[in-house]
Design brief:
Layout lengths: L1 H6 L13 E5 L2 E5 L18 E3 L7 E2 L12 E3 L7 E2 L13 E3 L10 H5 L4 E3 L5 E2 L2 H9 L12 E3 L10 H6 L4 H48 L3 H5 L1
Parallel strand pairs: 2-3, 3-5, 4-6, 5-7, 7-8, 9-10
Antiparallel strand pairs: 1-2
Helix pairs in contact: 3-5
């Protein structure tokens, strides 16, 4: 924060989004768009931006390739928005160089793991209404989370009521595995589907055999009704 305050004192002469302030210090270029009533990510962010602050706005979605042209970006602050949806390729193009990504204090319930696991950045995901399930568990285990904020990743909703309101880390430390629950649910669904198909096949075979038997009986009765060859000869 002190670094951003220092950057505010040095104006940036190149192009800058009209709703933002751009500054430069020792070659590090920052785009400061905090508290500007933005509802979407500006399209005209300079390509050589190193720091981008979009916090305290009303952004609701991070679309695919939203930052793809910002190959120099190292720090991205999207905290205190109204973000609900993050596309799978939202951070495509900045995954390699991004060092910190702040998504705290939004309205995120779930997020595609592909969007985060490709990042090397330190993540802040606290204070969102998370739905605790397998994907979030995988993100917690595999992504680089900020250790100071990981305790604030709380289950707003969960498959079982007893986990609601508890920190996800605490729930997982107690031995809960949302991924195994998901796997069992998937296995049950597959079993029910296979059983349904098997039942349909059995019913079809029974109907087919019964239909053929009825046709055979009708054909036999028809043959019996025909005059015999011996009767014609007499």
């Amino acid at each position: 924060q002190a670094f951003f305050c220092l950057l505010l004192c040095v104006p940036w002469g190149s192009s800058c989004p009209p709703s933002c302030q751009c500054t430069e210090q020792a070659g590090a270029k920052a785009v400061l768009c905090s508290s500007r009533h933005l509802v979407e990510i500006p399209k005209d962010i300079p390509r050589d931006a190193v720091f981008l602050k979009l916090d305290a706005n009303s952004i609701t979605r991070i679309p695919s390739n939203a930052f793809r042209h910002l190959s120099h970006l190292e720090e991205l602050d999207l905290s205190r928005n109204a973000i609900e949806k993050i596309d799978r390729a939202a951070f495509k193009g900045v995954a390699a160089g991004l060092r910190t990504l702040d998504l705290s204090s939004n309205r995120i319930r779930s997020i595609p793991k592909e969007a985060l696991l490709a990042l090397n950045a330190k993540l802040r995901l606290a204070n969102n209404p998370w739905h605790c399930e397998c994907t979030l568990q995988e993100v917690l285990w595999e992504a680089r989370l900020d250790p100071d904020s990981v305790q604030d990743i709380t289950c707003h909703t969960a498959p079982q009521e007893e986990y609601v309101g508890k920190p996800l880390l605490q729930v997982l430390d107690a031995g809960v595995n949302f991924c195994s629950v998901h796997q069992r649910t998937t296995d049950v669904a597959m079993f029910i589907t296979m059983f349904g198909w098997f039942t349909m096949v059995v019913v079809y075979v029974i109907c087919y055999v019964r239909h053929n038997r009825e046709d055979t009986c009708k054909h036999a009765d028809y043959l019996k009704s025909l005059p015999s060859t011996q009767g014609h000869a007499e």
